[in-house]
Design brief:
By secondary structure, the chain is of the alpha/beta class. The chain contains eleven helices and 14 strands. The longest helix has 16 residues, at 279-294.
Length: 295
């Protein structure tokens, strides 16, 4: 289990480092409780496209996919993605946050939001109990395996959780932002991916994947086997880099190679990945994105 856990990479300036003093700041039109050291206000004020891609995807996809669907937000943190989504959709949102400190803030920040379901649950590729220790920094947290001094915690999977608790829900979008643990979590949603083919929005950090003994290329091939194809590639500030398909292997390998060792201008991508059955939407939305960034 040496590769188990979430790893937070260094790279932010000292602006973000601080204690867990709670402050109230305005984001997405709401006053939100957060640690003073949280990076969200800095990112929103300095990077105009930050988090706007998922908002546009959600806004357009709910018009394309006429049936009612739910959204899964893994790594919900203080509820910032939830608040962003509520600007464009009333769809039910399931927020998963495993860290008790951030879950408490999520609970308070989401108290007045309708059709929001918050879950203080740790997720993996399968239900398992592991001894871990928790580490936090930069407004996020990680769980690292610690067989000697760690606390034994139970992990579930997306499939197991929804089959047990919300078996009739149709999942339309899954967003994961878990500092390198995203691939394991998404593998734990294989049944939902096969049945519902939700849009997948994830943080693609090669360095953190490898620290968790995961490989991004293997995972993307796995998604292709599940009938996913279209892919939009954004930098970590939300600006569009590339529109391609999973079957374009050389393009995918080139993108993967570009962020090796993080010795570049940005350390990871945000990927939006669409099922082959949503090819019409993928082509239409890709054109909208090109027009958006040409403005």
């Amino acid at each position: 289990m040496s590769g188990f856990g979430l790893y937070v990479s260094p790279g932010y300036t000292n602006y973000f480092f601080g204690n867990r003093k709670i402050v109230k700041r305005n984001i997405y039109g709401s006053k939100v409780l957060m640690p003073k050291s949280h990076s969200i206000t800095y990112n929103l004020s300095h990077f105009p496209y930050y988090n706007t891609n998922l908002q546009r995807i959600t806004q357009q996809y709910q018009q394309f996919r006429k049936e009612r669907f739910s959204i899964v937000d893994v790594g919900a943190n203080i509820g910032d993605t939830l608040l962003m989504l509520r600007q464009v959709t009333e769809a039910p949102v399931h927020c998963f946050e495993g860290d008790p400190f951030y879950f408490d803030l999520l609970k308070k920040n989401s108290a007045q939001i309708k059709e929001c379901y918050i879950h203080n649950i740790l997720l993996s590729d399968k239900p398992v109990s592991v001894k871990v220790k928790n580490e936090s920094a930069l407004g996020t947290s990680k769980f690292v395996a610690d067989a000697e001094g760690g606390t034994s915690l139970d992990f579930s999977s997306i499939d197991h959780f929804f089959e047990k608790n919300f078996s009739n829900e149709k999942i339309g979008i899954i967003k994961t932002d878990t500092d390198g643990y995203d691939l394991k979590i998404l593998k734990g949603a294989e049944n939902i991916l096969r049945r519902h083919h939700p849009v997948i929005f994830l943080e693609y950090d090669r360095t953190l994947f490898e620290k968790n003994n995961d490989d991004g290329i293997t995972f993307l091939n796995y998604l292709q086997d599940l009938d996913y194809n279209g892919i939009l590639v954004y930098d970590n500030y939300g600006k569009l880099i590339c529109i391609t398909e999973l079957k374009e292997k050389k393009t995918i390998l080139s993108l993967h190679a570009y962020i090796k060792n993080q010795k570049i201008t940005f350390p990871f991508y945000d990927l939006a990945i669409f099922a082959a059955k949503d090819g019409v939407f993928f082509n239409s939305f890709s054109n909208l994105e090109l027009n958006f960034f040409e403005k």
